[in-house]
Amino acid sequence: MQNRGTGQAGSGGLSWAAAVLTGTVALYIALVAFGNITDFGTNREYVRHVLAMDTTFHDPDLMWRAITSRGLQDAAYVAVIAWESVAALVLLAATALWAVRGRSGGAGRARRLATIGLLMMMLLFGAGFWAIGGEWFSMWQSKQWNGVEAAVRNFLVTGLVLLVVQWSGTSERPERTEA
């Protein structure tokens, strides 16, 4: 095993933190996807209302953006579930690689997979829910179907995990200089 900060496999605390945090996000998004698959109707209603913009202020300058086709709404929801499921699988694979990172460059592969999965999460919650849902479809205007706060929370937590994952791969420690 190598020491922390070498960018190679090791028992360093930052590397273990990256593994645990990646696993935690993997578990979270796997449970979200599982919930959306097994209780399809609950969040389907959320997606339908957000896309239809039927609980917003009904500003005529914005309502042209509304998607009222049930088929398109359901297709968007299925796409979200598929994205969540793939992100979960990628993050679970990264977590498994973190667990065996001492073998054949597993830490580097774990970091790359974790980065892909975490960026998928950031795209889903940042671009998908926060930007497109929140701004384009004016989700922030809805008292009942406003998921902006949850999207921002997920985006920020995932971003912090991504930073830890990236820091765990730094190959050089800052040199200390004597004054």
- The end-to-end span amounts to 33 Å
The topology string of helices and strands comes to HHHHH
Q: What's the total number of strands? A: 0
Helix share, percent: 55-70%
Describe the largest sheet.
none
Shape: elongated
Q: Which value, in Å, is the CA radius of gyration? A: 20 Å
**With helices defined by DSSP (H or I, 4 residues minimum), what is the helix count?**
5
Secondary structural class:
mainly alpha
Can you describe this structure?
The protein has 179 residues and is an all-alpha fold. It is built from 5 helices and no strands. Helix 2 packs across helix 3. It is elongated and about 60 Å long. The chain starts with 12 loop residues before the first helix and ends in a 12-residue tail after the last helix.
Summarize the structure.
The chain has 179 residues and is mainly alpha-helical.
Key terms:
179 residues, mainly alpha, 5 helices, 67% helix, disordered N terminus
Layout of strands and helices, then pairs:
Layout (H helix, E strand, L loop, with lengths): L12 H26 L1 H13 L17 H30 L6 H31 L11 H20 L12
Helix pairs in contact: 1-2, 1-3, 1-4, 1-5, 2-3, 3-4, 4-5
